[in-house]
């Protein structure tokens, strides 16, 4: 393994060209999750960052944020709450709609997911345009939580999402970034 764990994770992420549509370079974290060594390195990067912070919960965004978020919550001895796509939660929910390039989407949480004043780490696999991350943050804030930071494995800075999240006042941490362009 290289000496830089973040570069190791970046090198393990697979790029799938033209998926889900032509021109898109999909950044696939599946190889990171499949390999026990790279999965451990990834989780350890997050654990080392957050182990001394005062946090109460980890909120993971549907669906890949569930994978990393739940393991991270376990390692930090915190609770985990899911931020789901609309219509997937069985109890009373609060919803937040956000814009996509081709329409709108909605995320939801149970109304009793967090208590007022709890400090929550919000996590997903990547930040593209930032819409999902900001909608999830607004949901948590509406329920009274304090979102300590937005975290992701991958940042796609050319799409402006991490910048938009930062400009909304929410600190951002990502393990690695992929710029657009040929073989970025």
TrEMBL record:
One of its GO terms (biological process) is purine ribonucleoside salvage. It holds the Pfam family Pribosyltran. SUPFAM superfamilies: PRTase-like (SSF53271). It comes from Castellaniella defragrans (strain DSM 12143 / CCUG 39792 / 65Phen) (Alcaligenes defragrans). Residues 36-157 form the Phosphoribosyltransferase domain. Belongs to the purine/pyrimidine phosphoribosyltransferase family. This is Adenine phosphoribosyltransferase. One of its GO terms (molecular function) is adenine binding. Homodimer. Its EC number is 2.4.2.7. InterPro entries: Ade_phspho_trans, PRTase-like, PRTase_dom, UPRTase/APRTase. Coiled coil: none annotated. It is found in: Cytoplasm. Pathway: Purine metabolism; AMP biosynthesis via salvage pathway; AMP from adenine: step 1/1. The gene is apt. Catalyzes a salvage reaction resulting in the formation of AMP, that is energically less costly than de novo synthesis. GO terms for cellular component: cytoplasm.
